[in-house]
Amino acid sequence: QVQLTESGGGSVEFGGSLVLSCLVSGFTGDYAPMSWYRQSPGKEREFVASISTYGGSTTYADSVKGRFAISRDNDKNTMYLEMNSLKSEDTAVYYCKLFSDWGPGTQVTVSS
User: Fold this and answer.
1) Exposed e or buried b per residue across 81-109, where buried means at least 16 C-beta atoms within 10 angstroms of its C-beta
2) Contact 105, 92 (CB under 8 A)
3) Average pLDDT, the chain
4) Which of 2, 19, 22, 44 has the fewest CB atoms within 10 Å of its CB?
5) Cα Rg for the chain, rounded, in angstroms?
6) Is the Cα dihedral 104, 79, 65, 12 positive or negative?
7) How far apart are CA 109 and CA 35, in angstroms?
8) d(CA 21, CA 18)
9) DSSP strand E in the chain: where?
């Protein structure tokens, strides 16, 4: 059974940085594309970034382009999201996704 576990969330001031991690366990198939999503209170879950199987291709939501960077280390079964120049509107629970499986999320709070 696939398990996704996010970590690295927390509280940070406006303009600060955080790095989120997503550890994949229990997955015995081939490597696959993965994604980050986020959900703010009262809003629908939205796409943040995705990365191809071996990291050669990445895609970002316009709202985070140039500030966030997605990466992965397949040897460590881990995906990352480096978040810089954080804004209050980045406050959300961040989730990682592999196929149809989701992690429980990690809270990111940006204070002004």
Assistant:
1) bebeebeeebbbbbbbbbeeebbebbebe
2) no
3) 96
4) 44
5) 13
6) positive
7) 20
8) 10
9) 3-7, 10-13, 18-25, 34-39, 46-51, 58-60, 68-73, 78-83, 92-98, 101-102, 106-111
Token pair in block for residue 21: 């991690």
- Cα gap 59→68, rounded to integer Å: 11
Number of H helices, E strands in the chain: 0, 11
Q: Which of 4, 20, 3, 14 is nearest to 83 (CA)?
A: 20
pLDDT digits (tens, 9 = 90+) for 46-83: 999 999 999 999 999 999 999 999 999 999 999 999 99
Helix (H, G, I), strand (E, B) or coil at 76: helix
Q: Are 110 and 91 in contact (CB under 8 A)?
A: yes
